[in-house]
Amino acid sequence: MEFNQHYTQKQTQKQQFIPNLVQGMEMLQLNRMELDTYLNRVMLGNPFIDMNLADPLKISSKKLSHNDLSHIIEQTSVYEASLHDFLHEQIYLLYRDTPLRQLMFWWVDQLDERGYVTKNLDEAKAETNASQIELLDSLTLLQQLDPAGIGARSIQECLMIQTERMDFAPEIAYLVLEEHYDELIQKKWSVIAEDYGVSLSDIEDVYSFIQRLSLSPAEHYESRSKATPYIIPELMVDLNDGQLVVAETRYKTPLLTLNVAYLDEMKAVDDKEVQTYVRTKKQEFDQLQASLMKRKDTILKVGTAILMHQQDFFLDPNNHLKPLQLNDLAQLCQLSESTISRTVRDTFVQTPRGVFELRSFLSRRMEGFNQSKDEVMEHVKQLIADEDKHKPLSDQKLEHLLKEKGMTVSRRAIANYRKQLQIPSSTDRKIK
């Protein structure tokens, strides 16, 4: 279902449509517990909406891989990576090891608690010895990552970054933010309307649109990491006669219904304000339903594509994950990389091998060969296990041995893999 499928270019319809799409993007970033909280908050202002949570016993699966339901729906505390870790992960997944990527890491280290960069270009040039073009290019690449608006140097730029990434933004929104930001904030709308030859309502639409954007890109992510998170799988995988079966779980799935009796009762009231109120609240219900359906379809579509690509991992415990990048997945699912990124983060799947976050099935394709990071780490682990403990392998030697196997991996990357595997340095491994 395409959101803009049945809409015309009339401003009145677009004005109603924008909140629906923004709302859909918000919902895609929420896990089921957060979604429940969000919908309950919406319901406080809409007396026509009722909500139930699906019975956990209605999980759709022909053959469960565990006997006890608690094994299927795990509510377990989970480690939340920091915003810096999240950004580093995206950079590793999307970009090869180049000087620009190293500058992106540098810019990440310059972010404040809101997600804004704290150094100007002159300071950056002095610290990195990079050219201004390189610094601007790397900062631009950082600003393309999630959360939207990250890496901005001002509130104005933060709003412009978010607007540029939204196809459904008012046509003149980006231009207004770029050329008339102060007038827009000061509500000098007639000045802006006259300059562009548009109506006041067009400028009001722009203002209404930016009101829904975030002034602090890191705020949502940081607030979630401070909370105690729980795992509630959105999807489950089962093996049926050697075939992988992917299905949606139903536990804590919000089910919205319309209180038709009360709606009809209010429709009968002969009062224009009441009629307008009823239409608005009915439209809100329709938008919520559409956003929930879009969220469900996107998660199922992306999850199925990932799991089918990695099906060998489930069919044989000895198999490793196959290389799968965000851009590969975006092309496969016909979705944007930002949509894929939102979908795989904090979305869990129950499998016969345990509960996994969808993004854990993505891996950075290594330079020069078609192997995933997981396979390289396995080789590192095996080489260290087979080493002479009196003469343990240094990271430099490991780099050389991996190169002989056709794997071009930097010493720095090997050191990082060792740390992830909780393997000490060669000095600490040496038996004296």
From TrEMBL:
<keyword id="KW-0731">Sigma factor</keyword>
<dbReference type="GO" id="GO:0016779">
    <property type="term" value="F:nucleotidyltransferase activity"/>
</dbReference>
<dbReference type="Pfam" id="PF04963">
    <property type="entry name" value="Sigma54_CBD"/>
</dbReference>
<dbReference type="GO" id="GO:0006352">
    <property type="term" value="P:DNA-templated transcription initiation"/>
</dbReference>
<feature type="domain" description="RNA polymerase sigma factor 54 DNA-binding">
    <location>
        <begin position="276"/>
        <end position="430"/>
    </location>
</feature>
<dbReference type="InterPro" id="IPR007634">
    <property type="entry name" value="RNA_pol_sigma_54_DNA-bd"/>
</dbReference>
<dbReference type="Pfam" id="PF00309">
    <property type="entry name" value="Sigma54_AID"/>
</dbReference>
<keyword id="KW-0238">DNA-binding</keyword>
<dbReference type="InterPro" id="IPR038709">
    <property type="entry name" value="RpoN_core-bd_sf"/>
</dbReference>
<dbReference type="GO" id="GO:0003677">
    <property type="term" value="F:DNA binding"/>
</dbReference>
<comment type="similarity">
    <text>Belongs to the sigma-54 factor family.</text>
</comment>
<keyword id="KW-0548">Nucleotidyltransferase</keyword>
<dbReference type="GO" id="GO:0016987">
    <property type="term" value="F:sigma factor activity"/>
</dbReference>
<dbReference type="Pfam" id="PF04552">
    <property type="entry name" value="Sigma54_DBD"/>
</dbReference>
<dbReference type="InterPro" id="IPR000394">
    <property type="entry name" value="RNA_pol_sigma_54"/>
</dbReference>
<dbReference type="GO" id="GO:0000428">
    <property type="term" value="C:DNA-directed RNA polymerase complex"/>
</dbReference>
<keyword id="KW-0808">Transferase</keyword>
<keyword id="KW-0805">Transcription regulation</keyword>
<protein>
    <submittedName>
        <fullName>RNA polymerase factor sigma-54</fullName>
    </submittedName>
</protein>
<keyword id="KW-0240">DNA-directed RNA polymerase</keyword>
<feature type="domain" description="RNA polymerase sigma factor 54 core-binding">
    <location>
        <begin position="73"/>
        <end position="262"/>
    </location>
</feature>
<keyword id="KW-0804">Transcription</keyword>
<dbReference type="InterPro" id="IPR007046">
    <property type="entry name" value="RNA_pol_sigma_54_core-bd"/>
</dbReference>
<dbReference type="GO" id="GO:0001216">
    <property type="term" value="F:DNA-binding transcription activator activity"/>
</dbReference>
